[in-house]
Amino acid sequence: MAKRKAFLHVGLDDRSADFLDAALELHGHALADLGVRRPATSAEEMFRAAIEIRREHHAWGYDRAEVEGAWSRICRRGYKGKDTLVFSQPLLADATPDQIALLLDALAGFKIHVVVTVAAPDTWSDPDLDLGAILDRWTTSVGKPERVHVVVVPPDRGRKAVWKAFGRIVGFGTASLPLDGVGKPLVERPQRLVSTERQEALRELGRRWEHQVASREVDVHGDLTDLCDNGCAVADPQELIHSSDQALNDALRELERLARRNDTLTTRVVELERKRRKLRRRESDPSVA
User: Fold this and answer.
1) Superkingdom, according to UniProt (predicted)?
2) CA distance 109 to 97
3) Residue-level pLDDT at 282
4) Which residues contact 45 (CB under 8 A, 6 or more apart)?
5) pLDDT band for position 185 (cuts 50, 70, 90)
């Protein structure tokens, strides 16, 4: 009997493919009819699974107990049935070989495919990112280069093109699965004002990524020359400063909102813990008022 397939979208952190998991969730029932299933119950569950595998829970403000077992629970759910499985979590792209092994061990028995989405580097890109090393780690782990799929994001960050390519890789059409109900990324990153030298370094990084993909036998979807797209041309400095100021103001407001929310939740947890202890005392000693 042929092995079931599992497709794992691992990003990169190009902010263009964060919507994939939301699209899979939105069209979950339609995809199930096509034999494709997303076993994660929510984006939050998949996020916890990713930071569990990457051992980054403390960096994200989680206790170990809050993430422990998240990935195995998702995979146990996936073993039920006969569907093709799909997962999406951009934090997994730069996982180490040991972390990848741990990730894939939970999917033993499946034919694993990995989907990497990558766009031309922008002013937020890590200049030291080695795309070739990332592709090599995943290729070694899944065993065959044709099971590593690279989706090149168009210069306009076209979500429709990425969604269509992802569907083609997995084996479903997207014409009847629109993205109208899928929201924008949680955080929009405006272009930053950088030096002319930095602009040229980004162009060179794009050319290096193009060569790194082309020199490997991975499955490519899209135009590799788009990785060298001159989307980093120097814009009007005043416009960039204005957009950066606006983004900073928005970030500060959101940070204040989250801080207040965190304080409220902390107070609520303390109150609930106090009531829990009081209830336990009453259960153990009915004479306690």
Assistant:
1) Bacteria
2) 19
3) 81
4) 70, 73, 74
5) low
Same domain (yes/no): 240, 108: no
Domain boundary among 203, 233, 263: 233
Residue 8 and residue 115 in contact, taking contact as beta carbons nearer than 8 Å: yes
| Cβ neighbour number for residue 206 with a 10 Å cutoff | 25
pLDDT band at 127 (very low <50, low <70, confident <90, very high): confident
pLDDT value for 27: 96
Sheet holding 148-152, edge to edge: 36-37, 84-88, 5-9, 111-118, 148-152, 219-221
Q: Does position 220 have pLDDT exceeding 80, yes or no?
A: yes
Q: Collect all residues with Cβ–Cβ distance below 8 Å to 46 and sequence separation of at least 6.
A: 21, 40, 74, 87, 88, 89
d(CA 57, CA 130): 24
**Which sign, positive or negative, has the C-alpha torsion 257, 260, 263, 264?**
negative
The pLDDT, as a whole number, for residue 11 is: 87
| Count of CA atoms in the C-beta half-sphere (13 A) of 4 | 17
- Residues 22 and 89 both lie in one domain: yes
> What average pLDDT is seen over the chain?
87
Are residues 69 and 206 located together in one domain of the fold?
A: yes
Q: What is the pTM of this model?
A: 0.83
Number of domains in the chain: 2
Please report where in the chains the tokens 């050319």 appear, as a residue.
207
275: domain range? Answer: 236-289
**Between residues 233 and 92, the one the model is more confident about:** 92
Among residues 152, 142, 145, which one has the least CA distance to residue 117? 152
